[in-house]
Write a structure and sequence with these properties.
The structure is a homodimer.
Chain A (H helix, E strand, L loop, with lengths): L1 H12 L3 E4 L17 H13 L5 E5 H5 L3 H13 L5 E8 L3 H14 L4 E4 L5 H8 L5 E7 L5 H4 L3 E2 L2 E2 H16 L2 E5 L4 H10 L5 E3 L9 H8 L7 E5 L1 H4 L7 H23 L9
Parallel strand pairs in A: 1-2, 1-10, 2-3, 3-4, 4-5, 5-8, 8-9, 9-10
Antiparallel strand pairs in A: 6-7
Helix pairs in contact in A: 2-4, 2-12, 5-6, 9-10, 10-12
Chain lengths: ~280, ~280
């Protein structure tokens, strides 16, 4: 069960934080450019600096794929040094007809052995089934995304509810069968997070859009988590990774990650009457 | 303009056929397994055998990605031998928030220099904009897919029309701005093809699902093409690639491709009163 797995990690790490390893040669500190392998070096430093404070790492495949073969090498080498006591998420947003989706599921769950993957719902059940059949893995389906374009289709009304709720409802049905589903719910949509959480109390949420994209951490943590202050992971990428472009970038990233973890736990203490602040 | 580009190719090649290079080690003739590089050898033979009869090749990225780094090497080597007088389509079905989609667009249009790519509409305009901004390239947006799961979301009614029509309508709007849009319309939906064609007369269609997936070629060609018998490409993968597992597989694939091309042109002569049968 994905939910139990995530909640165990959240409890053990006392953290709701997911760090997104959106590697970008144009964003990493320029002093690293003179190194032999600046991108791997950067990932390694960031992972070492933040591992104490995270419940998950998310690798946005776009940032690796764009580099061609060296990007996949970087992905493989990064996976090899990532801790396995947190959730490793491939943010791939794949979704294709059945026989092709089977290949994508194999890619992320076998070839690369991620713990979870993000997928797009547009092609419906048989496009997600190959992922869902890996019952020990996690499948986060895009419901409501954090970008402005989410209004184009996700907010369209179907059967008196917006499409994103319809997707959430369907994913809940699939979760009854497979037990390994979650939802991607953008942190930029304050009211909608509460609405979706109410509809699907038993699905874990992956919440991107906090930080650089402007999502409100307070609202997101308050409404995306369950009564025990769990069942949700909040992803932050750029505002941790690129918090500093100086030689102490990893230290600054570590401090930023610690602050974000603590801030989330403080919010839980305020809104859920929970106290995680002293434990770590 | 994507439409003009496609129609020029269709006219020059007298063909509506797109061959999908869905490479699969489990499907290629077993005698090839003893070769050093069976997958590349297979692609090369298929390309050589079919190039006279096609208007486009489509590479389904799932089948390459699943192989890890050797898969991307195979993709690169295959791209290097593909003819450039036809449309080369990356069937990637990508779609992510803006700054990530930018990386995917760069991957397929710059790193790999495809002529066109398939994308998923769920995240809306800003997720597709980075692709659309490559105005000399083509962007096929998924409207109605060929798989059974298309009923889950694509047929949901929004504003008194199914979501796939709403998507088609939006893509038409974007096409007024960028001029490089097309739609993916599954060949397994007979009535809907005509309905979509009527709504968006000026968008080129990429029609998968003919052949192994059971789409009706007759209906698809009749309703997806325009009055000049153009503006649509019909993709066939498995029923050409894996038509034979004998040493003459390429010859059989060539014959199958020729037959399909001729069959499509025959249908145009029947339904559109056009005669392309004697030209090639």
């Amino acid at each position: 069960m994905l939910l139990e797995k995530i909640n165990q990690i959240i409890q053990r790490k006392t953290s709701l934080l997911c760090v997104g390893l959106d590697i970008d040669i144009e964003r990493i500190p320029t002093f690293l450019h003179k190194e032999v392998d600046p991108l791997f070096l950067f990932n390694r430093e960031i992972i070492e600096a933040t591992r104490d404070y995270v419940a998950a790492y998310k690798l946005n495949i776009a940032f690796y794929e764009v580099l061609g073969i060296p990007g996949w090498e970087l992905l493989e080498r990064t996976l090899a040094i990532l801790p396995r006591d947190v959730l490793l998420i491939a943010d791939a947003k794949r979704g294709d007809v059945g026989h092709s989706s089977r290949k994508y599921a194999e890619t992320y769950f076998q070839t690369y052995n991620f713990d979870a993957v993000t997928v797009s719902p547009y092609l419906g059940h048989d496009s997600l089934e190959p992922f869902l059949e890996y019952e020990e893995k996690g499948v986060f389906v895009l419901a409501l995304t954090s970008n402005p374009g989410s209004v184009d289709f996700q907010y369209l009304k179907v059967d008196h509810m917006p499409l994103y709720l319809k997707v959430a409802e369907k994913v809940m049905e699939w979760n009854f069968i497979y037990g390994n589903c979650g939802l991607v719910v953008g942190g930029t949509h304050a009211n909608e997070i509460a609405e979706i959480r109410q509809l699907v109390p038993e699905l874990p949420f992956l919440v991107p859009g906090i930080g650089a994209q402007g999502g409100n951490l307070e609202v997101a943590v308050r409404y995306a988590t369950d009564e025990q202050g769990r069942s949700a992971l909040f992803n932050v990428s750029r505002s941790i990774l690129y918090a500093s472009d100086q030689t102490n970038f990893a230290e600054v990233a570590r401090e930023k990650a610690r602050q974000l973890r603590d801030q989330m736990n403080l919010l839980l203490s305020i809104y859920k009457n929970l106290n995680f602040m002293d434990e770590n």
